[in-house]
Here is the input.
Amino acid sequence: MYIGNAMLLILNLPLIPLWVKVLKVPYRILFPLILLFCLIGSYSLKNDVFDVLIMIIFGIVGYLFKKFDYEGAPLILAFVLGPMFELNLRRSLILSEGSFSVFFTHPISAVTIALAIILLLMPFVSYLTRRKEGKKA
Here is the structure.
């Protein structure tokens, strides 16, 4: 990591004027170029159009997230951790012979599930309380 940072420093210091010139390129020219490089990069991974479609779908989802003020980080986190979660869920269900009670009988998992449910319900409860206060006023 130290070697990579040193190389980055050596390469980027002389290139600062070039990066400044890139920033001066108008958005209407820079955006199609970025989109083109993203399309080429996603296609070149497996030479499959499906990867390009996935990139476009996630680009639209990202645009909608930005438009409606949603955070993208939880989606990316779920996308990365989802397969690992699914694998371990399957393992635990195999060990418990298909019973979901294993998640509620052990204290650590029960507390974690309870906290998750509380955190999921908090926005809904605050919405209902604001709505009741709005009707009273």
In short: Residues 1-70 form one domain. The mean pLDDT is 87. Residues 107-136 form the longest helix (30 residues).
